[in-house]
Design goal:
This protein is of the alpha+beta class. It has 3 domains: 89 residues, Hypothetical 12.0 Kda Protein In Nam8-gar1 Intergenic Region, Chain: A, CATH 3.30.1250.10; 79 residues, Orthogonal Bundle (Arc Repressor Mutant, subunit A), CATH 1.10.10; 93 residues, Alpha-Beta Plaits. The chain is 35% helix and 19% strand. Strand 1 and strand 2 form a beta hairpin. Helix 4 packs across helix 5 and helix 4 packs across helix 6. The chain is flat and about 75 Å long. The N terminus and C terminus are likely disordered.
């Protein structure tokens, strides 16, 4: 049977990005607009129509060969076409040219460095490093990770080998950016690696805040509390709380003081910069504007010449 020529056969590969996914022995492709796949994966783009060139699944986009429905049903367990496309978008491998790949990696690398530079400070001065210094520190970690090293043999303090010693937890390794993960997620991991290895002295930045809120509101129960987003670990390890006060305190890394004066509750403490926005939104919503947040000190300071 002669192949039916689909409109996709007219697509110019210079204007299209392919996302490819292998399921069993079958390989499937979807045609997307450049730069939109990563935006979709990072939730920046939420309209799938802005991502897809053609809302269909192919076995070969350049030849216009549409994937047979029977193959799709078998590979994806009769999943609806929209869900299949979303699955390929999320889990498939983005196919780009070599020049585009380098350009995209360079863009992501700069974005990661900028994010990291805003999250770390010098422990002594509490001043941020320049993007250039953060970039060099990450390059150092990349070089170290790529060096072929033999596994270390556990020894006693006297230098004797131990027979059976549990391996120490592996430190996070930074091997450079990739094109298939959001920049923010990679930046959070880069922060962990820099703190673990300390190629330059670094610590997480902190903000000193003063929060004032009507005491009566603190006991109000809430159905679903937001989670702090200052760090990946905090977001994963913090459970939803039942009251307004508990939720506010879940954003705070360290409480310096808290007291009730009259009908007002006042708390001073430290939070990570990433938690400031969701904390502000939560207090504004739950207190209907009656609660306030005052920034007492920014641990992140940009100064000329730094």
């Amino acid at each position: 049977m002669p192949m039916i020529q689909q409109p996709s056969g007219q697509i110019k590969l210079t204007n299209v990005s392919l996302v490819r996914l292998k399921k069993g022995k079958k390989r499937y492709e979807i045609a997307c607009y450049k730069n939109k796949v990563l935006e979709w994966r990072s939730k920046v783009e939420t309209n799938i129509d802005n991502v897809l060139q053609i809302e269909n699944v192919f076995i070969n986009v350049s030849k216009g060969q549409v994937a047979p429905k029977a193959d799709l049903d078998k590979s994806f367990d009769k999943m609806p076409m929209k869900k299949i496309i979303e699955h390929i978008l999320e889990h498939g491998e983005l196919q780009v040219g070599e020049k585009e790949r380098h350009a995209e990696l360079d863009r992501i690398n700069h974005e990661v460095i900028d994010i990291v530079a805003g999250m770390l400070v010098d422990p002594k001065t509490k001043i941020v490093y320049t993007s250039g210094m953060i970039g060099k520190a990450l390059d150092t970690l990349t070089s170290q990770s790529h060096q072929a090293e033999k596994p270390e043999v556990a020894t006693t303090e006297a230098g004797e080998e131990k027979g059976k010693v549990p391996a120490a937890p592996a430190l996070p390794k930074w091997t450079g950016v990739t094109a298939n993960k959001p920049a923010k997620r990679q930046a959070l991991y880069a922060v962990k690696a820099l703190i673990a290895h300390q190629p330059i002295p670094v610590m997480r930045a902190r903000m000193s805040l003063k929060i004032t809120c009507p005491a009566a509101i603190l006991k109000h129960n809430i159905k679903s509390a937001p989670k702090p987003t200052g760090s990946e670990a905090a977001a994963e390890g913090t459970k939803s709380q039942s009251t307004v006060k508990d939720t506010i305190l879940s954003f705070v890394e360290r409480v310096e003081s808290q007291e009730v004066t009259g009908d007002l509750w006042t708390m001073q403490g430290f939070v990570e910069p990433g938690a400031y926005k969701p904390l502000t939104e939560f207090i504004g919503t739950k207190t209907k504007g009656a609660g306030t947040i005052e920034v007492l000190e920014m641990a992140i300071k940009h100064e000329d010449g730094e």
